[in-house]
Design brief:
This protein is mainly beta. The chain has 2 helices and 24 strands. The protein folds into 2 domains: 2-11 and 213-344; 17-197, Jelly Rolls (Sandwich), CATH 2.60.120.
């Protein structure tokens, strides 16, 4: 049996080889371990740039593990307390740091081979960020021991560009996890997080300053095959913030689909280049169960890649960088009228 306890879509302003996004708006601190691989001392709080924020306190961190790539592009809104230097972001090969990004006591930003605290500084920006003000930070790095590159942008302005560098600290010229904060860090806030890899063809460069708008289900579609835990409104069981462990829809029957409409963004005009559908799901017992995240746009039903949920509730995302009904960029109206949900594959 598959259980789904929450589902939402996030509209993102730009896209590349999109791997992970987070608005931090639709869950709480207790749910961090459902979305991140490992966290220590990190919390979700109000007061973000566009809603909630990820708070990385002193010596705290949050780690997202994906797969091994030579190039990663990470973008996030960032507000720094100004209380000394702090580790902003680190690309790691398993648990060993390859390269790190840190803000210094004067607000300048340095790229370090190895960890932010004691690694080798290979470049420092001439421009600085201000304390207690939101800035959008973007960092693109390629791991290599002789031809590595690293570029930093602050609010869409390139402030540091390094080429022909040694950006590799381990035997592998790849990183597979991204850490926010680290030991010996000072307090800082994060919002509107976007992670991309470098394998996106024409979409493998900087994202630009983006806002991620989170939207929740607001009505059932014509297709609601799964079984509600209570009542008859399926969408009402997957729209809690944070997701509830007691309200859910479930199914153990192949090809059953549950889809919902979503609340509008509130925008009158916007450029939408990606819709990211997030699901909190689990299975009831051992054995093989698979599901897919669905999108219904216009006359087109589109299933994402097969997902094999754990017996623990975790977040899963599907990146829709084009409208499946047109195979072209999303319009705002198409994104707002599309329906999204889940399907039992096996």
């Amino acid at each position: 049996m598959l259980y789904m306890t929450g589902l939402y879509q996030q509209l993102e302003g730009n896209k590349m080889a999109l791997r992970f996004v987070d608005s931090f708006d639709l869950y709480d601190t207790a749910s961090l371990d459902k979305k991140y691989t490992l966290t220590y001392g990190a919390t979700i709080s109000t007061g973000g740039r566009t809603g909630n924020r990820l708070v990385i306190g002193a010596d705290a961190n949050a780690i997202k593990t994906l797969d091994a790539q030579s190039t990663w592009i990470v973008g996030f809104a960032y507000k720094w307390s100004g209380d000394g230097w702090s580790s902003m972001c680190q690309l790691s090969d398993v648990s060993s740091a390859q390269i790190a990004l840190r803000v210094n006591a004067d607000g300048s930003i340095s790229v370090c081979r190895g960890i932010a605290q004691s690694g080798t500084v290979i470049g420092t920006s001439s421009l600085a960020i201000s304390e207690n003000i939101w800035h959008y930070i973007e960092w693109k790095s390629t791991i290599n021991n002789s031809t590595g590159t690293s570029e930093v942008r602050i609010d869409n302005i390139s402030v540091l560009s390094l080429t022909a560098q040694d950006t590799q600290s381990t035997a592998n010229a790849t990183a597979n996890s991204i850490k926010f904060g680290a030991d010996y860090s000072k307090a800082a806030d994060y919002d509107d997080l976007v992670i991309c890899d470098g394998a996106g063809g024409s979409f493998d460069d900087f994202v630009g300053d983006v806002t991620i708008k989170a939207c929740m289900p607001d009505a059932d579609s014509a297709t609601v095959d799964w079984t509600p835990s209570t009542g008859s409104d399926h969408y009402a069981l997957v729209d809690e913030v944070p997701p509830s462990a007691t309200d859910y829809v479930s199914s153990g029957t192949a090809d059953q689909i549950d889809e919902y409409s979503f609340a509008n963004t509130g925008y009158t005009s916007a450029t939408v280049k990606a819709v990211v559908v997030s699901v909190v799901a689990s299975k009831s017992d051992a054995g093989v169960r698979t599901m897919a995240i669905m999108a219904h746009s216009g006359a087109t039903d589109s299933a994402g890649d097969e997902i094999s949920p754990s017996t623990s509730a975790l977040y899963y995302q599907r990146m829709l960088t084009t409208d499946p009904n047109t195979s072209a960029a999303w319009s705002l109206s198409a994104a707002e009228t599309a329906e999204f949900g889940v399907k039992v594959v096996s």
